[in-house]
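Quick one - inputs below.
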Amino acid sequence: MATYNLTKQLTSPASSSTQNVVVGDTINFTATMPSSFGNTNPTVTANPNNCTLNTTSDNTSPYTFTATSFTGSSYSVQLQTFDNDSNTTAYTHTVSGSVTAADTTPDGFISGGWVGAGTSLDTFYYASFNSSVTASTTSVGYYDVTGLTSGVSVSISLALTSGYTATDADFSVNGVTWYAPGTTGITVSNGDRIRWRVRSSPYSNTTARYTLTIGTVSRTLSIATAADRTPNNFSFTTQTDVNLSSTITSNYVVISGIDNGTTISVSNGEMLIGSGSWQGSLFSHTINNGETLRLRHTSSSSNSTSVTTSVTVGTMTRTFTSTTVGASAPVVNNTQSGASGNVTTFAPSFTHTIDLSQSGQGGTLEYNITIGDSSGGVASTTTPTTGWTTSPNFTVYRGRRHHFWARRSSTLVDRTDTNIYVPYIYGGGAFTITPSNVDVTSSTSSATFTINYTSGTNLSSNHIIDLIVDTIATTIILGSRTGEGTITVNSSTTGWPSQGNTTSFYGWTRLPTSLGGNNTRYQNTSTLSTINFPDTDPSNPVLRKADGTYSISETGASTSTYYYRKFDTEGISSGTNVTWTASGDGRLSTSQYGTYSTTVTRQLNQTAWLRLQSSANAGTTKTSTVSTTGASATFTLTTAGSGGSTGSGDGGTADYGLVVNNGNGDEILGPTHRSLGLIHSGPTGSISNGSSATLSAPGMTTSNGSEIVIVLPASFSASVGNNITFTRGTNQFTLTNNSGSTVNTTYYIVRA
Amino acid sequence: MSYGLVAYTGNGTLLIDGSSSSYKGLQIVTESTANSSSQSVSLSSGQLLFATRSTAGLLEGTIDENGGTLYGATSYVVLQPASSFSTITTGYGLLVKNASNQVAYQSNAASKGISIENVFPEGSISGMRSGWTARPNSYSGDFILQSTNPSGYYVLMNGNFYSSSSASFGNFRYGSNFISFVSFVDIAEFGAYGLPSYSTVLLAKLLG
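Output:
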């Protein structure tokens, strides 16, 4: 600010002068009197306009006034004396001028900013206050305030620019104190030296920006740390023995430790970033922190050769390498399903799989087969010289053994290390037939059964199920169907039971040769099923005496004596109850000495007894009829006549020979039954394998079928049972041992 | 000229031979029901084992001189020489001794007798009929009883052998109206083969 010292002589008439000022300037006035002014004690007054005076009158020489606070566009100060003697205003001088505002804009500190890029982390950067060097880590830069109106002081302040990361920033004035952002009350004027610094962020890719304001001018300083383009270490696993000319894909890696947008490039392969698509080297790409990365390439078309793919993420380059497998013989592994290879195994189908586990080795894979003979002999293990083919379509044979071959070249050959047995394809398998029995009558025209396969069965929908009557000639087929379902057997079918009979049948399965089976029938393992035509009409009972003879009418009976006759219930179906009724004095019971009544209920082949007490009078007949619906038999019992002959009497029987009954009157030995008797027994002694022993057998002939030899080894095995034979001779037999080991046996000679 | 009680059946087969110095009738010493799954039977010297089953199915067993195990049987009887029974001196009945003064038959030793219904000499039947596969679950063997309900028919089990499903000698299958002979060996890879009867097969019923 300027100060003007003006000495002005007051004059009469009045005078004036000009002094322009700037707001803030000061004018010191000194008024002087002309020599003619005789008053020695005048009073000088001052009249301001658009300014302020420190006093408006002064009566002591020198007469001084100070004008400040100029306002408006012009001002004036009128200095004037008052003549005390004459009490008049006689001498005046007026100073006036223009009023100009003060300059508060420093020069060289223009509005704008500096940006520091690629700076170190967590480091002070000093503003250099020039346009070419934005910031420096050394405190060499400064700004000297200039351009202000002389004497004018302006404020200086530092603040974080909105939207940027706060770090550490401050400024100093004349190198005394570092003032933090927000410090108030600091002013500067021309000549003051300003330093300013901002600390960079401790994090990459982060900008700290502060604004320094001097007077009316602000300037910003941005310190931006560089983006991190060096990822944390990562690697791809090298792959070896990979197939030739195959797409080989690396393991996944997660890229970390970088800032988003890091450039990435791949060479000699492709890369997969995150969930994107496979990319090659044609376009530039970026990757963000935390994204996955995977590489791939096509393996070499040559054996034992490497292919390497490189990927560069920011500043780091890594590689992924695969090496193709060396050439070797293709491994022929055999797995077999659907059958155990045993010819006796039921199996509707089977599968052989040859696993060429090294098929990626390149070369031309060819296949071949060698087949054993029909007796199940092993297949040839000599490398075939013909028959190699790249498109195998071999015919295999049931009951034979097979080897499967593969080769990459004439010297790289492999085959199955065991014979593969192709089993017969059977028709066997389990199923159920429901219901297990159907009762029919004369009016029943059909019976329906349902075939359901058992869970896990080998049967297919192509298997034919035959219902075959369970008789000697198992050629009576009641019905057939293919696969599961119902079969209806008609009464017109051969084998349909007549009354009193039951047709029993089993389900058999077969698979036609046209469908890979052998068309041989195999019996189902389920229980027998039946069509039952019950017979409810019993045959006439046959009354029999203890000797088994048929008895209708007997004479010569003792008086008042119980006579027992037994009969069987025959001619009806099993399980059918028949109630027999005895007429007259006859009574019935289930056993000879049981409880008797007029009726008895019996079933098929069950015995009942008729008890009839003879008359108390001689020559008297009693009669009782045993009857039921459709059957009856009458027993007549006449006591012997008094004092007379009985006539023909019992008359004997047609039987002859020795009969032995048990206590119940039942025959346990008799001429109609062959019995058994032990004739001879003994040990054979040790018979070594391949040797024979001749042993005593009294009564033995070469053709005496009733003389029986029973050989009982001390212990049994399949080989013993299968390989010991005996040859009949006269009173002896020969035992031959081909069991493979020495045997000791006991033998019995039994006659029947 | 020999002496002693000799009886024949109507067909002329020997019933009792008291004139022989060695004949000893075989009479029932044990009659028992059997566990059809597995029944262990012990035999002493000279004892014969007959068994039956009441339902359709296989009747098999492995029986050596000391006995063994029956499979599928529901009843069985054991016969032993009459001389092995204690001689009963009271009551009534028939006691026959042979020429060696050994008991050849004693009627009150057993309440039941046995009737031999048929005899099949060794080699006369086979476990595989022509045109049939030889398998334990098929009716491949020759029949020893046909068109007749086999209920009550017993078969001689001595000398029979059964080993799982791979070998079975001298065994039987009971059907609804037959009994067939089951005898085969199953050699892995070569299949099953039916075998002829290597010993005499007896079919019997109980009397009494």
